[in-house]
Specification:
Elements: E1 3-11, H1 17-33, E2 38-40, E3 62-63, H2 68-77, E4 81-90, E5 93-102, E6 105-111, E7 132-134, E8 137-143, H3 150-158, E9 163-168, H4 185-201, E10 204-210, E11 213-214, E12 217-218, E13 224-226, E14 232-235, E15 241-248, H5 249-257
Parallel strand pairs: 1-2, 1-10, 2-4, 3-4, 8-9, 9-10
Antiparallel strand pairs: 1-15, 4-5, 5-6, 7-8, 10-13, 11-12, 13-14
């Protein structure tokens, strides 16, 4: 499948896991009505994010990737490919993770590697980036601050990712915050990272984010789909919603890489 409809969500989630699943069901159903094949939901959409990044926030519910909650997510997704953030339990360790489900099973899972401020007081850090095959193409997953590091997306692109899904709980600035999120410098940075990572790796980029407020954090929304040339195909702007675009993935990558192949023309021996 190369011509697909992809969607990225900006919406509000919290500690009410049952309420979160209710929102997920509504979003999946709305996406299904629009013929969406790949849906990206925000970071920590199952159980909510942290109320602050100062190291003393209450803990989200920890879920096992092979547990009943992720199985429930897979059942809701059906034949749609859905990516959703959650707090992953692995023994006594907790990770800020994103799972990709489709066809009733887990297709891939990523543990956030880069942790801003005191997020490390609540989560352990992941240690790898790997792409994986899905019915809609080869996908790579990132979470929020991961996208601030070019190596993260580049590692996925070099592993064959055609589509990179980045799920976030990206807030506005904590200092000198703009009253209008559209003017906030952290909104601008969120958008710049999305476009730059898509362009430099010449991949389809799907970016979801939280909306509203949680604790001391105010999220910038700005869910979007970006093509391999760095052009925004669809965005919610600084409002909740679903950004949807139809993309011929193979054709888009071929066109972008035909003359200026950023992966092909690398000179690793010089770096």
């Amino acid at each position: 499948m190369t011509l697909i409809r992809v969607a990225a969500v900006a919406d509000e989630f919290d500690r009410d896991l049952e309420g979160d699943f209710g929102r997920v069901e509504k979003l999946v159903e709305a996406a299904r009505t629009e013929g969406v094949h790949l849906l990206a939901l925000p970071e920590a959409c199952l159980g909510g994010y942290l109320a602050d990044l100062d190291g003393d926030a209450d803990q989200p519910p920890a879920l096992r990737v092979d547990g009943p909650e992720i199985a429930r997510l897979a059942a809701i997704a059906g034949d749609m490919v859905v990516c959703a953030g959650y707090c992953e339990a692995d023994g006594d360790r907790r990770f800020n993770s994103v799972v990709c489900v489709g066809g009733g099973e887990v297709l891939g899972n990523h543990r956030k590697v880069h942790q801003p401020l005191r997020e490390d007081a609540s989560y352990d850090s992941g240690d790898s980036f790997a792409a994986f095959d899905t019915p809609v193409g080869r996908i790579g997953l990132l979470i929020c601050y991961d996208k601030a590091f070019p190596e993260s997306a580049r590692a996925l692109a070099l592993d064959g990712a055609e589509i990179i899904v980045c799920v976030s709980a990206w807030p506005g600035s904590r200092t000198n915050a703009a009253s209008d999120l559209a003017e906030d410098r952290w909104t601008r940075r969120f958008d710049l990272f999305d476009r730059a990572r898509a362009l430099e790796n010449q991949v389809v980029w799907v970016s979801a984010n939280q909306s509203g407020t949680f604790g001391s954090l105010r999220f910038v929304c700005s869910a979007k789909v970006v093509d391999p040339g760095g052009d925004v195909l669809a965005t919610t702007g600084v409002a909740p919603g679903m950004a949807t675009a139809e993309v011929d993935v193979a054709a888009a990558l071929t066109a972008a890489r035909r003359s200026m192949g950023h992966l092909r023309d690398r000179r690793p021996e010089a770096y």
